Amino acid sequence: FRRNKILSLGLDDYGGFFQTMAALLKLVDVCGKKFIDDNSETKIGNPEEVYNVGDKDYNYNDLHNINNLYQIKKNLKQDPKIILEIGGGYGCLLAKLKKNYRDSKIICVDLPEALLLQSYYLFSIFPDKKFFLYEDFLKLDNPKQLKFGDYDFFVLPPWAIKETLLTKKIDLIINIDSMMEMKKEIIEEYFNFIQNSLVEEGVFYNVNKYEKSASGDTVRISEYPYNRFWKVLYSKAAWLKPNIHTMIAQKTNYETDEIKSA
Description:
By secondary structure, this protein is α/β, with parallel strands linked by helices. The protein has nine helices and twelve strands. An eight-stranded mixed sheet has the order 5-6-4-3-7-8-12-11.
C-alpha cells in the first residue's frame, strides 16, 4: 500500500536517495544511529523509496517518525499508559511508540480509509496483540463501558471515540499534519476533547503548519484554541520542515500564559 504512492498518498512523506541520506545524517546528530536503527521499519507496505547503507535500510518518512518518537520520549516524565493519535497516517509512529512502551494502550482516531491501513500495518507488526475495531464498537450496549484493559489497540473513527468515556484517562495525545487540514470548528471540537481527555500532566504533541487554507478556513497554529492550563515543554520549527511548527505542551492544574508567548 506504500508502493507507487497510491493508497498512502497524503499519509506518507516521500524523499529520494539524496534527501533520505541528508535526513539520516542530520538525524544521527539528533538522536544517534543506534536509536535510529533500533526503531527503523522499512518493509511493511512495500515502500519503493528505501535505501541501503551498510546492512541497514532507511526510508525518508520513517526517519521523520523516528525523530517524532525521539522528541516525545525526551519530553515524557513517565511511561504513558494510554496513547491516542488523531490522524495517524498509516500507523508508523504508533507502532514505534508501542514498541517503546510495550504496556501502553494505543488508540487510533481517523477516517475509515486511513484506519484500514493502520489496522493492516499495526497487525503486521503486532499479530499477537488484541485489536478493538469499529465492528466491535458497534456491538457494545454502552460505549461508555469500553474496558481498556481487554485490548492493546483501539482503531476507531472520530464519531465513535466521542461516545466513549475518556475524561482524564489519556497520557499522550498526538496530532501531526492533519489539524491544518480541518475547519476551525472541527479543530475546536478536538481541542475540547484533548483538554478534557488528558490526565493532569498529560502531554499533547502537536506538529502542524504555521498557516494553511486547505479546508476553506485560514488555519494558523498560533490561533489554535489552547486554554490557559498548559505548560510549554518544547516549541520550535519542525525538524527539516521550516513551514511547520512543533509544539509539545503539558496539561497543568494552574493557569499560565506560556502558550501565548511560545
